[in-house]
Every structure is written in structure tokens, then in C-alpha cells.
Design a protein that fits this description.
About 65% of the residues lie in helices and about 0% in strands. The protein is built from 13 helices and no strands. The radius of gyration is 24 Å and the shape is elongated.
Length: about 210
């Protein structure tokens, strides 16, 4: 940059630690963003991903505070001043607080354990739910499907009919759009249908968009 933009060169050198810190941090943001994509994403997985990232952020803050930079490979190769370390710790603390506020509804969401494992101990106060869980636990055909994962288990076509009370609760956690990725996929599906079917299509009569 000597010949093209010497001022930019000086700024890059001056702010090299900050650039390294933000590069490492945004790499971690990108990893979380990738985890929040995919057709199989649901609210249960979303809560686990966000909670895990918050816990890792706490660990990052503690490690940087004691000058342990193993979680920040680019930053570890630079000579860091104590003032910079303090700024990064404060920044991570603010980020942690901001994430907790932004995702409060997801983090405080109570997930019934029987959704993840309908064959576990029955600890339901609702009698109807208890009866249906007993019905599931004694259904040998359903047990085979459970080996494919809890999401595939609940998406079986017989579940809503045979166990309507359980499905009413489970579907809220499994079919909702927890990320913008799935919302965009949904809009793309609608746009594709409208282009093919033109203006006579009644989109509300085409079934569940998420399942499509």
C-alpha cells in the first residue's frame, strides 16, 4: 500500500490488533450462522446453538482477560497491550449481554423433554398427555422410527391423528421458522409456486409451507 494508499497502510498497522480480534470473532459468528441454517433446524436446536455460543463467549472473555488467546488464532500472533485486552473483555461482555437480550425468548423457552425422548420417564401433569405418551411407549412400530431422530419421529403422518394433544405441542417447536434462512426458503417456495401456477393459485390452500 506504500504507493497506493499510505494512510490506509498506517491505519492497518495501527489497528492491527483490533482487526485480528474482529477477524477471529466474526469467524465464530459465521460458524454459528452456518449452524442456524438447514432444513432440519427447529426451535429446540436453535436454543441449544445460542446457549452454547453464549457459554463459549463467557469462556472467551475469561481467557482473553488472563491473556490466553488460543480461541483467537490471529490475535495470538500479535503483541497485545493490556489496554487492548481490557477493551476486548469489555466488548465481549457487552456482546454477551446483547445476545441474551436479543434471544431471551428462545433462551427462556421451556421444552418438554418428551418431545426429544417420548420413551423416557412420564412426568406430565396433564392426564391426556400422559395417556398419549403411554400409547406411544407401547407402540412397537413407532419405536423403530425413533432411531431416525426425534424430528423424523414426530413428522410421521400417523402422529397428528393418533396423538393429537402431543402433536399440538410438539409442532410448535418443530415447524416454526426459527431463523431468517428458513423464512427466505419459504418465500422462495411461494415465489416458485406462484410463477408456475400464476394468479389462480390460492397459496393458503397448498398445505403447510414448512413441510413443502
Amino acid at each position: 500500500l506504500d504507493a497506493k494508499d499510505p494512510i490506509l497502510k498506517e491505519n492497518l498497522i495501527k489497528w492491527k490488533p483490533d482487526i485480528a480480534y474482529l477477524t477471529d470473532l466474526f469467524t465464530k459468528f459465521n460458524e454459528v450462522n452456518l449452524q442456524l441454517q438447514g432444513d432440519s433446524l427447529n426451535l429446540i436446536k436453535t436454543k441449544s446453538i445460542i446457549a452454547a455460543f453464549l457459554a463459549r463467549m463467557n469462556l472467551m472473555k475469561q481467557n482473553i482477560g488472563r491473556r490466553e488467546f488460543s480461541q483467537f488464532p490471529n490475535l495470538s500472533m500479535i503483541n497485545i497491550q493490556d489496554d487492548d485486552v481490557l477493551v476486548y473483555v469489555q466488548h465481549l461482555n457487552v456482546l454477551h449481554t446483547d445476545f441474551k437480550t436479543r434471544f431471551e425468548d428462545v433462551l427462556t423457552m421451556e421444552i418438554p423433554q418428551w418431545i426429544i425422548n417420548p420413551y423416557g420417564d412420564i412426568e406430565e401433569s396433564d392426564v391426556i398427555l400422559q395417556e398419549e405418551l403411554i400409547g406411544i411407549s407401547t407402540n412397537e412400530e413407532l419405536k423403530v422410527q425413533f432411531t431416525k431422530g426425534y424430528q423424523q419421529f414426530w413428522f410421521q403422518k400417523d402422529i397428528p391423528v393418533a396423538y393429537p394433544a402431543l402433536w399440538t405441542i410438539a409442532r410448535k417447536f418443530l415447524i416454526a421458522f426459527p431463523s431468517s434462512y428458513l423464512v427466505e426458503r419459504g418465500f422462495s417456495a411461494v415465489a416458485n409456486l406462484l410463477k408456475k401456477k400464476k394468479n389462480r393459485l390460492q397459496i393458503i390452500g397448498r398445505g403447510d409451507l414448512r413441510l413443502y
